[in-house]
Amino acid sequence: MIQNDPAFQKWIKPGQGNLIERLSALKDSGQVANELYLSVLCRKPDPEEVKMVMEMLLRGGDNRAIVVQELVWGLLACSEFRFSF
After folding, report:
1. Residue 70 burial by CB count (10 A; 0-12/13-18/19+): exposed, middle or buried?
2. Which of these, 41, 45, 43, 37, lies nearest to 84 by C-alpha position?
3. Rounded CA gap, 10 and 58, in Å?
4. Can you give the pTM of this predicted structure?
5. Which of 57, 59, 60, 61 has the most beta carbons within 10 angstroms of its beta carbon?
6. What is the SS3 string spanning 24-48?
7. Torsion over CA of 29, 72, 42 and 27, rounded to 10 degrees?
8. Which of 40, 43, 49 is nearest to 81 (CA)?
């Protein structure tokens, strides 16, 4: 469902005031990591997770919203999210 459902895919596109848009607007990549993990997994990221988010955002260049969208999708698809909620 997470990979192929059109409704789900629409939910994780940048939109007025949604999580993707809010995270994409943050300039501090460390803050993006913290807000991302708190919003999706209800916990703070560990240092390795912060580093991964920061590296992905750096590599994404001008495609920040797309990278943020992929990060949110990845956390929603992870086993921690599926089995914790």
Report:
1. middle
2. 41
3. 25
4. 0.84
5. 57
6. HHCCCHHHHHHHHHHHHHCCCCCHH
7. 20
8. 40
